[in-house]
Design goal:
Elements (H helix, E strand, L loop, with lengths): L1 E7 L4 H8 L4 E8 L5 H8 L3 E4 L8 H14 L4 E4 L8 H6 L4 E5 L11 H7 L4 E8 L9 E8 L6 H24 L1
Parallel strand pairs: 1-2, 1-4, 2-3, 4-5
Antiparallel strand pairs: 5-6, 6-7
Helix pairs in contact: 1-6
The protein binds 5-O-phosphono-beta-D-ribofuranosylamine.
The site of 5-O-phosphono-beta-D-ribofuranosylamine has 13 residues, from α1 and β5.
């Protein structure tokens, strides 16, 4: 069975959906760059080890990424699963884990990469948005797309409704893609 580390910066609902899916893998570690993230409470509730770091306490990205690499080695991590992790890795980090870092993004990539993807799509007047699971390369949400799903938002009346619809799709899609294509 593969050892996986999940990286999250905030709420961690995708992290929890992956736990609840009881996939054939060992969820060894949650890596988190925000000591206030609710994802940490979820990890505690499920007895999953955490590595929390404060990027501001390091002089460079290379320095904190070195600490992350040490943790990946300590826990013998095979696959890195990003679930709302709000940082971009350096080129050398991505190269080290080539094809072993997966991300979920709330748009039908290549449309609307980067921050506030749902807001960007709504602003552009889209009636169909999406969710994509992709490999992470050196860019922002530019890596090879593994799977995606289209979501119709024409009946949604507010952004909160759209967000919750997107989350419900993500919570099914991410565990399924991990199971069928990655693990
Ligand atoms: C998700 O919408 C995901 O697509 C994006 O960040 C959000 C994380 O939500 N990358 P959560 O922390 O898993 O609830």
């Amino acid at each position: 069975m593969k050892n996986i580390a999940i990286f999250a910066s905030g709420n961690g609902s995708n992290f929890e959906a992956i736990i609840e899916a009881k996939l054939e893998c060992n969820i060894k570690l949650l890596v988190c760059d925000n000591s206030k993230a609710y994802a940490l409470t979820r990890a505690k509730n499920h007895n999953i080890d955490t590595f929390v770091f404060d990027p501001k306490k390091f002089n460079s990205k290379q320095e904190y990424e070195q600490k992350i690499i040490e943790k990946m080695n300590e826990y013998k991590i095979d696959i890195i699963v990003l679930a709302g992790y709000m940082r971009i890795f350096s080129k050398s980090f991505v190269e080290k884990y080539e094809n072993r870092i997966i991300n979920i993004h709330p748009s039908k990539l290549p449309k609307y990469p980067g921050l506030n993807a749902i807001g960007q799509a709504v602003e552009a007047g889209e009636v169909e948005i999406g969710v994509s699971v992709h490999y992470v390369d050196g860019g922002v949400d530019t890596g090879e797309i593994i799977a995606s799903e289209v979501i119709s938002i024409k009946d949604c009346s507010c952004i909160e409704e759209i967000e919750s619809l997107v989350h419900s799709v993500e919570h099914k899609l991410y565990p399924r893609v991990l199971k069928e294509k990655i693990l």
